Amino acid sequence: xxxxxxxxxxxxxxxxxxxxxxxxxxxxxxxxxxxxxxxxxxxxxxxxxxxxxxxxxxxxxxxxxxxxxxxxxxxxxxxxxxxxxxxxxxxxxxxxxxxxxxxxxxxxxxxxxxxxxxxxxxxxxxxxxxx
Length: 131
Known about the structure:
CATH architecture: Sandwich
Helix content: 25-40%
CATH superfamily: Carboxypeptidase-like, regulatory domain
Order of helices and strands: HEEEEEEEH
CATH topology: Immunoglobulin-like
Organism: Flavobacterium aquariorum
Number of helices: 2
Number of domains: 1
Distance between the termini: 57 Å
Oligomer: single chain
Number of strands: 7
Largest sheet: 4 strands, antiparallel
Keywords: Signal
Shape: globular
Signal peptide: 1-17
CATH class: Mainly Beta
Strand content: 25-35%
Radius of gyration: 22 Å
Protein name: Carboxypeptidase-like regulatory domain-containing protein
């Protein structure tokens, strides 16, 4: 009985003695598509299961370590890889692979409205990456 208790105590001590990763930091950033439109894409850390999605303004936050690689990808666009440095904020621009754009008049008006709203937010400092 004492041997089982000792082994259980030893196993518990080793499980709590694991080193935690303290150099992980929160990275934030913004992703834009062509024509200054906020992009709704997936942002992930290469080689791990950590991923997030941008919001309607193209803004994201994710936990990563220095020298990790952020992969920003979306369907129909070339993925971008950004190596994490000491900076805490990044801005990325996605470009469509095909270069073909088919908009209806209603879609074109909506795109212009979103672009004007994005430019207004940019001028107000919403998209600033001041570390």
